[in-house]
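Progress against Task 2.4 (sequence-to-structure conversion) is shown through the following example record, which the project officer requested during the mid-term review.
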Amino acid sequence: MNKQIIFIPGLFALGILTGIFIILSQQDDESITSTMAATPTQTSEPAIMAVANRAPDAMQPNELESLQDRVDQLTSRVEQLEQSLQEMSVSEPSDALGSDETTSSSAEIPSSDNARALTNNLLNAGVDPIMAEEVVRRRSELDLKRLELRDTAIRSGYIDTERYRDELNELLAQDVSIRDEFGDYVYDRFLYNNGQPNRIRIDSVMVSSAAEQAGFKPGDMIMDYDEQRLFDYTELQRATTQGTRDEYVSVNVERDGQEMMLWIPRGPMGVRLTNTRIDPDL
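Structure tokens generated for the chain above:
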């Protein structure tokens, strides 16, 4: 009984001391946190103000235009890479198919899915079923040849050499693109069915540019340039740098559902472009 009387006040005192210790610890943490939070604020505000004060003077109009051009180029490159990846997902095997793990039947399932998807896209684009099967068969044979070449190069020790790259490029040169084999009409629908962009839209027209003087407007869809059918604005960029500078070329555009022809001197058009996906049968 006496032990219990002594033990209970002892616990009570220990609890009080623990509470005091926790309160003091929280106060120390709060003071440290407030100090740490204040330090970057005090040092960063002048830097931010300095940057804000310098930005208008540092960025001249020509620099802004150059920066926008760089952004457009990077955007174009990203879309090219995305389009290439989408095409590879349909018709090309992964490099990993040359590894030992891919000899199992489960690893061959994506290849079958890709062949089926390619066949369906060709059929939906209007390709004859027999021709569609022939295309899939040829691409399957080409994929097998790539695997054989990779296996041979690994076994012979020249997988990471110029010889392997030359032999691979020679092999890939045997492939015929969908566009070359079936023409622009089928290729247009193939791109759409495959979920890829197939139209070039003008987002904006620069003031006093060749495009403004020629009558181009935001929202116009550029269908062809100098009688060359276009599906991607990188194709348009290449076309404007070919031929004789300042010679007038025809440009077919679609505006509000109607096609019209405009004429513009070859060279920079002065427009900002976006790739978009439109159902060609609408």
